[in-house]
Specification:
The complex is a heterodimer.
Chain A (H helix, E strand, L loop, with lengths): L4 H13 L7 H12 L7 H8 L3 H10 L11 E6 L2 H5 L2 H12 L5 E2 L5 E6 L11 E3 L2 E3 L4 H13 L1
Parallel strand pairs in A: 1-3
Antiparallel strand pairs in A: 1-4, 2-3, 4-5
Helix pairs in contact in A: 1-2, 3-4
Chain B lengths: L2 E4 L4 H5 L2 H14 L4 E4 L13 E5 L2 E5 L7 H6 L11 E4 L4 H4 L17 H6 L4 H7 L3 H11 L11 H10 L6 E6 L8 H8 L1 H15 L3 E6 L4 H16 L15 E6 L9 H8 L23 E5 H13 L1 H5 L2 E2 L2 E2 L1 E8 L5 E6 L4 H8 L9 E6 L6 E3 L9 H6 L8 E6 L4 H15 L5 H4 L1 H13 L4 H18 L3 H5 L1 H10 L8 H4 L2
Parallel strand pairs in B: 1-2, 6-7, 6-9, 7-8, 12-16
Antiparallel strand pairs in B: 1-3, 3-4, 4-5, 10-11, 12-13, 14-15, 14-16
Classes of the chains: A alpha+beta, B alpha/beta.
Chain lengths: 157, 517
């Protein structure tokens, strides 16, 4: 994938923003992902130059953290909690329901590009299990009916 | 006159519809021309009753819950804003048994105040601990914390006073306070509740920590799964800065302290303190060798206090009311209170702050009301994904660091996840390995490879392949991981696995006798 000029410019701006910040890579990658929706591999070279690190180090950093993506996701990100508390309240059914309904597995995006499905290990909503997160909104005590509604809204957005 | 109504803004309350309830109540009051003043308070932590709204009356606050938008019309018809009767009315909030039977010290303000109102915070003893501390020498602040018996609430239970003393005594121009807010354990949400519902208490605790050890910079390393907490913390930090509690010359003293929130990026391992420090420095979160301890060589090689949210948020009340006040709660060497989080398959889930010593049975049945599904509780996991599974015969164990350690279990961060009798414990054991394989930093072999091999061995046992040989291999693998891993990730993953095997062999397709160690 080739980046547009405006995307490259944005990356350069963020690189500049964090040049003198200690521990810059963490806030820098967040800034890039918040802005572009992902951390493109094309950004590794300019970052490595500016921060005097190797491209391998940048790649190693980005791929260590589950939160960072190197590819553009769908319009909405649906995260399903797979941790113990949600399992105790039937999250496996929710996982299966979502995967079947959307026709995709984890880390995949629906054909219409509306939803990317991701697993997550605890949303801190364990008193309201099972829980999911749609973009930045947590939903508790999820049922297939609630999932239907969430998917419908995501597809219409 | 205007009626005061409280609707929580805690993210769990919102996940159950609190924002919609807020919108609807606000619309309905306009429609009916009733003058109400809505305050977005924190949650009291009674999550089976959320969204729980409260009304201020002459008797105190009266609660209603769980409120859905379809209840709003009837609430208004019954004039709930006067504290009137309604099927959802729970009576005076403070009289609800669940709340009454707690000892809320760290959580004294949680659910009562507007989280970002510094006036609310100051009005309920806020910043008293800091003001007292400013009059003390550094040694005396550290002594007070040590005398309180406070131990690391993240899970390791290391005495906070000793950690602070080490950092205080380490000679360095630059020192750091790092708050570990990477609350990744399933079944835990007490850090999140402090940050979202009483952020100033964490800020105050960090300022006192900085003052005590001579650090002028603090970082809150916050997990990326908590966007709501991020927003509230940043808002609270800005307010504290404007009010002179942060920044240069705090409250006119010569002490200065700067505080920032750093967003983590979804790696469970970064809850381990050395991995957290690597991550804060902008590197992969690879675990460091210890020694040197972070207290001697921590962030950027400088002496660093790394404390959990709850440890730091408990500091203000100790410095306000004194070490002996706090130490009078609890049992044995487990002093004070623990925020316990009831989660998973329970009727009544939520946050309970209690002195150490309460039994699991009391928590599961008296507070929790038994399982949500009405089936028998088969097992509970205490202390997150690295904690042992406990069967019913261990439910009388009192919550105490040492008593738990005697039965090879951990209190950890105080999360309790209950499972009913439909759970397949071999599946849970396999999941423990799977989780370890996903989240391992990869630095040491037992954790990186052992986790994957462990899944395979469990599959073989379940498949009836050379069961005796594979059970002994599984125990051997557990031993290697416990004794050969650098940190708790690999070192504790065998706890849930082996406890599941010991107590629930039938789920692995084994006879009870085959598995006895």
């Amino acid at each position: 994938m080739t980046l547009s000029t405006s995307q490259l410019e944005k990356i350069q701006v963020h690189i500049g923003e964090y040049l003198n910040v200690p521990g810059a890579l963490l806030p820098l990658m967040h800034a890039i992902q918040d802005d572009l929706g992902f951390v493109p591999e094309e950004s590794y070279k300019p970052i490595s130059k500016a921060y005097n690190l190797s491209v391998a180090e940048i790649h190693g950093f980005v791929t260590f953290y589950h939160h960072f993506r190197t590819h553009l996701p769908g319009k909405n990100i649906l995260q399903i909690c797979r941790a113990e508390s949600c399992q105790a309240m039937g999250s496996e059914n929710i996982e299966n329901y979502c995967q079947e309904k959307l026709g995709i597995d984890y880390h995949q995006t629906t054909k219409d590009n509306s939803i990317t499905l991701e697993p997550v290990y605890c949303l801190g909503n364990c008193a309201c299990s099972p829980a999911i997160m749609i973009n930045e909104d947590v939903v508790g005590r999820v049922t297939p009916e609630k999932i239907d509604q969430i998917i419908k809204e995501a597809r219409e957005s | 006159m205007s009626y005061k109504i409280f609707i929580p803004r805690d993210s769990s309350s919102i996940s159950l519809g609190a924002d919609k309830v807020y919108q609807e109540i606000s619309n309905e009051s306009k429609k009916r021309n009733i003058d109400i003043n809505i305050i977005r308070n924190g949650s009291r932590g009674l999550f089976w009753l959320e969204p729980m709204i409260e009304v201020e009356t002459s008797k105190g606050r009266v609660a209603y819950g769980p409120v859905t938008i379809s209840d709003i019309t009837s609430l208004f018809d019954n004039e709930f804003f006067l504290g009137n009767k309604h099927p959802l009315c729970l009576g005076v909030t403070e009289d609800i048994k669940w709340l009454k039977n707690q000892e809320r010290l760290t959580y004294a303000r949680v659910g009562i105040t507007n989280p970002v109102s510094i006036d609310d915070y100051e009005g309920l003893d806020g910043f008293k601990g800091l003001k007292n501390s400013l009059k003390l020498s550094q040694e005396n602040i550290v002594k007070e914390i040590a005398d309180s018996g406070l131990r690391g609430r993240g899970g390791a239970a290391f005495p906070t006073g000793i950690k602070w003393k080490t950092v205080l005594d380490a000679p360095s121009e630059k020192k750091y306070i790092v708050c570990n807010a990477d609350e990744g354990d399933s079944g835990t949400f007490s850090d999140r509740m402090i940050m979202e519902n009483d952020p100033f208490v964490l800020i105050e605790g960090m300022i006192i920590a900085g003052l005590a050890v001579g650090a002028d910079q603090g970082y809150i390393y916050l997990r990326s799964e908590y966007p709501h907490a991020l927003e509230i913390l940043n808002e609270a930090i800005d307010i504290a800065l404007k009010k002179g509690y942060l920044g240069k010359n705090i409250l006119g003293s010569d002490f200065s302290f700067n505080l920032e929130v750093t967003r983590a990026a979804g790696a469970y391992i970064c809850g381990e303190e050395t991995s957290l420090l690597e991550s804060l420095e902008g590197k992969r979160g690879m675990v460091r060798y210890k020694p040197p301890l972070p207290a001697i060589e921590g962030l950027y090689g400088k002496p660093t206090v790394v404390n959990n949210v709850i440890s730091l948020a408990t500091v203000p009340i100790i410095m306000d009311k004194g070490a002996s006040f706090y130490a009078n709660f609890g049992m044995g060497r487990s002093k004070g209170t623990l925020p316990i989080q009831l989660a998973g398959n329970l009727k009544q889930t939520g946050l309970i702050e209690k002195a150490f010593g309460i039994s699991l049975r009391e928590l599961l049945y008296d507070f929790g009301g038994g399982s949500a599904t009405g089936k028998p509780i088969k097992a509970v996991q205490v202390g997150g994904p690295l904690g042992a599974f406990l069967p019913e015969e261990q439910f009388d164990t009192p919550l105490d660091y040492e008593k738990f350690s005697e039965i090879k279990a951990v209190v950890g961060h105080g999360g309790i996840v209950a499972f009913d009798d439909t759970v397949d414990m071999s599946k849970m054991a396999r999941y423990s390995f799977e989780f370890c394989a996903i989240e391992s930093c990869g630095k040491c072999t037992p954790c990186r490879i052992g986790s994957t091999r462990g899944m395979e061995v469990i599959d073989k046992i379940k498949g009836g392949i050379e069961q005796e040989k594979n059970v002994s291999l599984l125990r051997d693998l557990g031993d290697t991981m416990v004794n050969g891993s650098l940190c708790a990730m690999g070192g504790m993953t065998p706890f849930p696995v082996i406890s599941a095997l010991n107590f629930f062999p039938e789920d692995f397709g084994l006879e009870k006798t085959e598995t006895s160690a």
